[in-house]
Amino acid sequence: MVNETIRNILARRSIRRFHDKPVEEDKVKLIIECAFAAPSAGNSRPAHFIVVDDKKLLSSLAKAHPFGKMLERCPLAIVVCGDPTQSEQASYYWEEDCSAAMENILLAAQALDLGSVWLGVQHAPAVELAVREFLKIPPHIKVLGIAALGYPAENKDPHEGILDGKVHLNQW
Amino acid sequence: MVNETIRNILARRSIRRFHDKPVEEDKVKLIIECAFAAPSAGNSRPAHFIVVDDKKLLSSLAKAHPFGKMLERCPLAIVVCGDPTQSEQASYYWEEDCSAAMENILLAAQALDLGSVWLGVQHAPAVELAVREFLKIPPHIKVLGIAALGYPAENKDPHEGILDGKVHLNQW
User: Fold this and answer.
1) Which domains does chain A carry?
2) What does DSSP say about strands A142-150 and A76-82: parallel, antiparallel, or unpaired?
């Protein structure tokens, strides 16, 4: 019953060390296509994606984020943003919609032999402000987070199992 | 370059019509295992999952949710909850963490020949309250949403392409 897709979901781990090798443009396009394939409330699709491969910008992002050191050395980042003005539903659900898109990015990367890590942004106001300035993000757009991506230079075991006490049958 | 996992991500669509056929327990377990494999901020893993297959409860949920009619006729729902008291990071990031877990549920379902749809809950206070009561969810726990699941009785084309104006290179 366990197939390639299930194995891919279980195999995705946070990767913070990358080889000094660019990510092919075709792979970037496919990852972005997968990001757009995520569901969104009322299908309003509020997500925007900023593909960052400029070394100077990656270095600026690395300095701005307390857990973002790897951005200095990875070849690619995708910044996931949301437009809460896209629709009434987007104003409530942009975070959920953008998080699903982010998860698709990480899973698609894994499927294409890349590693990735999700760096949170929106709940760290100083980081959010710096990212916004470096990438010229308009004021009405929210910044969910950053995916750092590249060919992995570390190996991690796949996830397995179910956490005790966190699955409930029919009622809590 | 397009492999089974990429195809699975693109093929996932919101499915609202289901066959009257239960979902095998092994599949439910695998879906939940995939849900736990989602990333979380600081690895604090705040997600809880309520697996609902009781027909009376599914019917109650269907009546409580304005877009939840299909819960009356689907064999299974997984309610994704978050515990913001799990850690300081969970208090900020539980929505993002739980949304990634929800997306894993939908993608794992697709990989196991099931269909699914994500019903938002937390931003609809009356719905949230009803779900909370029916499923005896404790006050400190948040309810992200409900995945309705089952064998699909409708077909939809896969996603393709990239939305104009929503991909930016290096800066907005």
Assistant:
1) 15-150 (3.40.109.10)
2) antiparallel
